[in-house]
Amino acid sequence: MSRKINFTSYKFWTLFFMMSSLIFFASCSSTEETQKNQDTEKEKSVDSVYIFDEIPPEDSFKFEAPVQESVDVFVVQIGAFSNLESAKDFAEQSRVTLKKDIKVEFNDKKNLYVVWIHPPFQEKSAAESFRNDLRNYEEFKDAWIVTIESKK
Across the strands, what pairs with 150? Predict the structure, then answer.
């Protein structure tokens, strides 16, 4: 005994509509439940964040970078020139005459190429003694001492 489904029947369409409505409302309800669950989880996670208590000032520490001591070095400057070629020529002549290492550097503050004896002196008295010896030479009678501050 087989039954045929009559798609034009009132009972069929009523049953179909009721089932569809049930499925639709059930899925909406599930979405609302899911949204409520997610909101609750967010609230819990926000509530579970621990904010540290403020530390009283007497218990706080201030870390400072170590202060670097400055160390002065002294250079005996034997010339200053407005162009590099003149400074290089004078430095080369001075190397031959003094048999010392001579440096040429551009000084931004003075806008000049300075010529000085290398290496710098650690003590001012040694630089003064060397400068005084240089004054025996006519071309170095105007030599002077420059103090350079450097960090340790």
Answer: 71
